């Protein structure tokens, strides 16, 4: 049985002023140690030697010192990865703009606008190329750049700025040490406490431990008294009984002290599989499109789980709506006793689109829906299959939409479900005869599946271009017979 990581957001409650001062001091020392480790690693100091230096300099135990050094190392590694991603994305944007400028019959105003945009994109590309070639990272501001600028403008006090920089304490888990040696969750008389190893030492050089009450979340319904959604408290308590390692990160925010507890949650046994039926899920900016097929690849039904608010609501509301849609999708799979197949999408910010289009097609919705869907399937024992996304919409549009009376999204979902069974999508004889020129038929037959569908798509675009129209899914469904007649 494989494991997935789950994070519970708990909160420390009923803290005295002395306990708050203790936590603030620990966070100050630990965050200072992180910044020191960050600088030393950029200078090339070895991690093994640095851990001993940090432990001695800031009076941390060796495990706390290792956590501080590891946190700094992860910051540097993430910055190197961001440099690579930004360079790759801006390279794609510059390449696309250069290609647009080569198109004929562009108006002077359009050329001027594209040239100005190209200059901005090229400037950004040069900026990230500098770091990529020199294997360095851009400046990192601990406490966020936004708060740093506010401090420079005098909008926040020095104390507020220090609170932003020194607001966390982190401890990794260790199974051999009972879960977590420095920040341990314990229960006494059915009340939960966080046992903290402070920086103070006893005469025998042992860390002094203090107990602080902690609230583990469980959202009870006012009507039924039952837990709404996932019972995170119960999941975490079960992991404690099994002795699973868990990591704890203390964060101070708005005067409150939160504990983000991350532990490994075992997946449920898979009960609903695709041995008889499979649901294909196509993700859209406004919800899920579900199409069900049998194990032979035949269509058995479809639905559209639509929520138009996803395109304009605030982020918290959007996350909640995504969770509701995922719940409906998983319930549909459990009702039909089948698995769910979805596209294995890679999210990159390498497209140059207008602000309105960027908001509508925000990758946040796609990524959130797919991540939530995968986690919910694993948690509820539903088989989840990822398939490659190439040409799913095109194949569904040109091959299945007219046959089953589907729109383009349901057609794509049908192709996704078929692809999960490993079924091939051959080009129908009608499209082959009508759209592929006879002189290129031999070359067409030698191509792989995706190459053939790419050629079909190009030929359809050519037909629309002859009629001086833009190829859209809805227009193809209306003009299909007419276009194939004149082809």
Strand order of the largest sheet: 2-6-7-1-5-4-3
Give the fraction of residues assigned to helices: 40-55%
Radius of gyration over all CA atoms, rounded: 28 Å
Instruction: Note the main sheet.
Output: 7 strands, antiparallel
Rough outline: globular
CATH fold field value of the domain at 277-425: Nucleotidyltransferase, domain 5
Q: What would you note in describing this structure?
A:
- 51% of the residues lie in helices and 19% in strands.
- The protein has helices spanning 17-42, 47-57, 62-101, 108-134, 145-152, 158-165, 232-241, 315-336, 355-360, 363-380, 392-404, 408-420, 429-435, 441-446, 449-466, 473-486; strands at 3-12, 168-171, 183-188, 191-201, 207-215, 246-253, 256-266, 277-284, 287-294, 299-306, 339-343, 384-387.
- The strands form 2 sheets. A 7-stranded antiparallel β-sheet has the order 2-6-7-1-5-4-3, sandwiched between helices. Strands 10-9-8-11-12 form a 5-stranded mixed β-sheet, with helices on both faces.
- Helix 1 runs antiparallel to helix 2 and helix 3 runs antiparallel to helix 4.
- This is Transposase, IS605 OrfB family, central region.
- InterPro entries: Cas12f1-like_TNB (IPR010095).
- Keywords: DNA-binding.
- GO terms for molecular function: DNA binding.
């Amino acid at each position: 049985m494989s494991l997935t990581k789950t994070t519970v957001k708990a909160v420390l409650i009923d803290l005295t002023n002395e306990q708050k001062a203790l936590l603030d001091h620990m966070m100050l020392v630990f965050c200072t140690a992180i910044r020191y480790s960050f600088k030393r690693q950029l200078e090339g100091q070895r991690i093994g030697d640095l851990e001993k230096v940090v432990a001695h300099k800031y009076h941390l135990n060796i495990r706390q010192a290792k956590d501080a050094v590891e946190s700094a190392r992860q910051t540097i590694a993430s910055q190197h990865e961001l440099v690579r991603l930004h360079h790759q994305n801006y390279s794609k944007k510059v390449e696309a703009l250069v290609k647009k400028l080569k198109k004929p019959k562009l108006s002077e105003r359009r050329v001027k606008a594209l040239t100005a945009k190209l200059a901005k994109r090229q400037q950004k590309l040069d900026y990230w190329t500098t770091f990529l070639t020199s294997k360095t990272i851009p400046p990192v501001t601990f406490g966020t750049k936004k708060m740093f600028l506010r401090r420079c403008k005098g909008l926040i006090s020095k104390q507020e700025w220090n609170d932003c920089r020194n607001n966390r304490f982190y401890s990794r888990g260790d199974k051999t040490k009972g879960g977590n040696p420095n920040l341990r969750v314990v229960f006494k008389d059915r009340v939960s406490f966080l046992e903290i190893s402070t920086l103070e030492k006893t005469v025998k050089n042992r860390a002094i431990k203090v107990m602080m009450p902690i609230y583990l979340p469980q959202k009870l319904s006012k009507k039924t008294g039952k837990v709404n959604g996932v019972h995170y408290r119960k999941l975490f308590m079960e992991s404690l009984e099994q002795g699973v390692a868990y990591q704890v990160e203390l964060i101070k925010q708005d005067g409150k002290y939160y504990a983000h507890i991350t532990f490994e949650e075992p997946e449920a046994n898979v009960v609903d599989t695709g041995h008889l039926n499979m649901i294909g899920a196509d993700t859209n900016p406004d919800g899920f499109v579900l199409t069900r097929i049998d194990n032979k690849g035949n269509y058995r039904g479809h639905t559209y789980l639509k929520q138009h608010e996803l395109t304009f609501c605030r982020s918290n509301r959007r996350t909640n709506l995504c969770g509701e849609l995922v719940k409906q999708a998983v319930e549909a799979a459990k009702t039909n006793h089948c698995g769910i197949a979805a596209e294995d999408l890679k999210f990159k910010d390498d497209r140059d689109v207008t602000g309105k289009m960027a908001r509508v097609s925000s990758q946040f919705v796609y990524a959130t829906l797919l991540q939530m869907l995968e986690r919910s399937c694993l948690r509820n024992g539903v088989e989840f299959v990822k398939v490659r996304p190439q040409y799913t919409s095109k194949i569904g549009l040109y091959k299945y939409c007219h046959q089953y009376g589907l729109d383009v999204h349901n057609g794509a979902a049908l192709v996704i479900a078929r692809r999960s069974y490993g079924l091939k999508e051959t080009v129908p004889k009608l499209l082959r005869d009508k759209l592929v020129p006879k002189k290129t038929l031999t070359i067409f037959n030698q191509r792989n599946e995706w190459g053939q569908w790419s050629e079909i798509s190009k030929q359809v675009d050519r037909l629309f271009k002859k009629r001086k129209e833009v190829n859209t899914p809805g227009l193809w469904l209306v003009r299909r017979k007419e276009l194939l007649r004149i082809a």
